[in-house]
Amino acid sequence: MTRRTMFLVCVAIATLRIGDSALRAGGATGRPALPVSRVDGAGFTVADMDRSVEFYTRVLSFTKVSDVEVSGRDYELLSGIFGASARVVHLTLGDEQIELTEYHAPRGRPIPPDVRSNDRSFQHVAIIVSDMARAYEQLRRRGVWQASTGPQRLPDWNRNAGGIEAFYFRDPDGHFLEVLHFPAGKGQDKWHAAGDRLFLGIDHTAIVVDSTDTSLTFYKDALGLAVAGESENYDLEQEHLNNVFGARLRITALRAAAGPGIELLEYLAPRDGRPAPADLRANDIGHWQTTLVTDSLDPVLPLARAHTLALVSPGPVDVRNASLGFRAGALARDPDGHGVRFVVR
User: Fold this and answer.
1) What confidence tens digit (pLDDT) does each residue in 179-190 have?
2) Cα 46 from Cα 83, distance rounded (Å)
3) pLDDT digits (tens, 9 = 90+) for 39-90
4) pLDDT for res 16
């Protein structure tokens, strides 16, 4: 080995150590390693875009705001899907949005028919309604696929969740959704503003986790999200909401400075929920991704080296030519396998 080669190797090792030291120092001082300024919303893969757009716009009052075709090397790297060709549609409801992706090629797998609410692949978005009875009546009239036995009002003994009404259902592909109504004094002020709309917007996306503490190390310590609320939910109403006998959940709400929240659902009982499939890919219909906005993607690789996140993209990807609404991005998975996409606007 020449002196020059040895010098370059030493520089590379020193750079790596500096990056890892910075990562550890960030955790020690409480500063996030990858500060997230906004939760931009959740997205998922669909089998038939036209069918999904019709469902979300006609049944749930979303509005389509963009519809683009994407392919090429940049999108392959971003999605982790070789030969990817897809149609991406953004839909808004109030101030929030969801992103639907249909892969023309290669096609992925459908959602397993026996997926349960306590499986760790579970994710949903919580759609706020102004009137639960009206919302349930409309959903029943439209023939939606029920996941709860019916709307549930959480009991008053639960100080943080008492009086909240909720109902789980599924879209045509089997993705879980929730409609939620906050009583006076709970939820953000905007959910109580006067108006005649039934479906108001998205309060949060919820994910099932194996360990709340492990997930907080990722979402709170590494990404800088703040804990906005906590509760422990159980009893008959919670069982019928989740359709899980004996359900007892530790629930932790997280928020960035802007955008909807991320809710961690840890099943204290039963503990028989299945882990997310290790081979879940972005073109599978069971794939969800939560988009998080940051100022720089430089910390992504150090976080991957520290095994804080698992990369799907090989690293930050320049996607300015893909018409996706951001300049660069990287798809990763959190400690439970949930898709997390970091983007720079």
Assistant:
1) 999 999 999 999
2) 18
3) 999 999 999 999 999 999 999 999 999 999 999 999 999 999 999 999 999 9
4) 41
Which CATH code for domain 36-110+280-344? 3.10.180.10
- Judged against a pLDDT cut of 70, whether residue 11 lies above it is answered with no
Task: Map the chain to HEC letters.
Answer: CCHHHHHHHHHHHHHHHHHHHHHHHHHHHCCCCCCEEEEEEEEEECCCHHHHHHHHHHHCCCEEEEEEEEECHHHHHHHCCCCCEEEEEEEEECCEEEEEEEEEECCCCCCCCCCCCCCCCCEEEEEEECCHHHHHHHHHHCCCEECCCCCEECCCCCCCCCCCEEEEEECCCCCEEEEEECCCCCCCHHHHCCCCCCEEEEEEEEEEECCHHHHHHHHHHHCCCEEEEEEEEECHHHHHHHCCCCCEEEEEEEECCECCEEEEEEEEECCCCCCCCCCCCCCCCCCEEEEEEECCCCCHHHHHHCCCCEECCCCCEECCCCCCCCCEEEEEECCCCCEEEEEEC
Q: Where are the domains of the chain?
A: 36-110+280-344, 123-269
Question: CA torsion sign, 85 to 201 to 92 to 342?
Answer: negative
Rounded CA separation 341/343 (Å): 6
pTM of structure: 0.91
The reported pLDDT for the residue numbered 320 is 86
Question: What digits encode the pLDDT tens for the residues 255-268?
Answer: 999 999 999 999 99
Tokens of 92: 């808004």
> Which CATH number applies to 123-269: 3.10.180.10, 4.10.320.10, 3.40.190.10, 3.30.230.10?
3.10.180.10
- The 10s digit of each residue's pLDDT in 215-242 is 999 999 999 999 999 999 999 999 999 9
